[in-house]
Structure formats: structure tokens, C-alpha cells
Amino acid sequence: MKKLKRYQYERYAILCQLAYPDAAANYQKVLKPFHERLLVDKYGRMSVRILWMENKKEVIVVFRGSLGLRDWLANMVFVPARIKQVDRHFYVHWGFKRLLNQPMFSSTKTINEALPLRELLVKVLEPLRQQGKRFTFTGHSSGGAVAVLMADYFERLEAKAVKRVVTFGQPAVATRSWHKHYLLHNKTYRICCDLDMVTFMPPFPYYFWHVGKMLWLHDDQIYENTPTHERFLKSLHSWLLRPITYHYMRKYIRNKTLFDEH
């Protein structure tokens, strides 16, 4: 499994931030080199951003996370629902199946031509695939959950079409059978930050499973595939010691950039 490089991490993280309507204006320059196409929900909100360059083989598909009470309530429905991933059936979190099936229309179409997200996205990506491009799927929170489901689906349709999957603060998606048959474990990076509670959701250990390689950002280090209980205990230990660690000289050094604008 190749390492995720710093510039890749930074690019995907900023693109996931830009999926939200309150994204900082100074991030917008990241979008300038790209062609883009948007998939929009029935409320007119951008839900998926597709980005590519003519001279690059990578297409980046960015899924927005939850917005508003309706989305968060759906995330809390911890009920498994049956879904077909081309050649296999799995049980996945009901809320994420709902997101895959929600009606979407393209920025080049009208709402009257809305299709389920999964169906529409495959149609939109197909011309790019025929150009020999490969696809990175990324997203934050529930957007990360949809990214892994969609990446696996697309890989089953078109073998070796997926370049990588990178998610941020992603909850678990589906049952153990999904984990066992997921096609992209060696290309999936699941990034967690400290004690992000969403990454422990749904709260049913050994029923809903994560996929891919976990990169845990904690206490100025990156830990790989740290077990859930160990991650929780390390975070608790860090919290208890935090008042002391603020006294360490490295904390002062880390904040040196603040003086650039002082």
C-alpha cells in the first residue's frame, strides 16, 4: 500500500472543506486549475463536486457531508438496509443507502432530469473514464461513507478505475460481510483526528465495520490502524495531561507562525 503524501492529504482535505457552503474564501484558489461539474440535490445544494484537468489522469470526486437537521437525523438511524453493489448484496447503514439513492441533477441539467445519485454519477464519470482517467473518491463525515460505497460500486463496474479513496472523520458503513468483500482496502485511507466521536459511530462494535487503512492524527503524530479501544484510551490520557503539556517548549515553537502577522 503506497503512502498518502502530504500534498495529497492537503489537497483532498481542502477540497472536502470546499464542499460546504461556509468554506473560507481563500481556499477557492485551489479550484482554479480544474474543470468541474457539480451534482446538486433537490434543494439546490451542491452534494458532489467532480474535478479534473486535461493534462492529468486523476479525476477527484468530492462528496459533501451532512448539512442541517434532516441529514443528521438520517445519520442517527442505525438500521441496516440491503443494497446491491453490482454483483453482491450487503447490509449498510440505512442513512448512507438513502444518500446513494437520493435524487440528484447535474449542473448541466434541470431538476426534472434528476436521477438517483449512484446512477447519475456513473453516467457523468463514464466519458472521463473513456479518456483513460482514473478516479479518487473523497469526502468528510457521511460524505466519506458515501465515497467508500461509491468507490467500491464503481470498481465493480470498471475494474482498476479507482485510483484511491481518502475519507475524513468517516463513520463505519456496513456489516462484516462488506468489510470482507470490499475491493479497495489497499487503496483506502481513513483519516481520523484525535477523539472525533463520529469515527466511533454507529455505536455497535463488531456489527458496523470500517474499511481500508486508518491514519489517526493525534498529539502531533500519525498512528496507523490503532484499535478503537486504544485510540479512546490514548485520547483520554492526552486530555488528562493537556494542562501540563501546554507548558512544554514544543508547544511554544509550534505556534511560531502566529508571529508572522503580529
From TrEMBL:
Q: Superkingdom of the source? A: Bacteria
Annotated InterPro entries: AB_hydrolase_fold (IPR029058), Fungal_lipase-type (IPR002921), Sec_MonoDiacylglyc_Lipase (IPR051218)
Query: Which CDD domains does the record match to this protein?
Result: Lipase_3
Which GO terms are recorded in the biological process aspect for this UniProt protein? lipid metabolic process
Q: Per the database record, which ranges form the Fungal lipase-type domain? A: 60-204
Task: Please name the Pfam families in this protein's record.
Answer: Lipase_3
Cross-referenced PANTHER family: ALPHA/BETA-HYDROLASES SUPERFAMILY PROTEIN, FUNGAL LIPASE-LIKE DOMAIN-CONTAINING PROTEIN
- Specify the protein name: Lipase
Q: What organism does the UniProt record list as the source? A: Alteromonas lipolytica
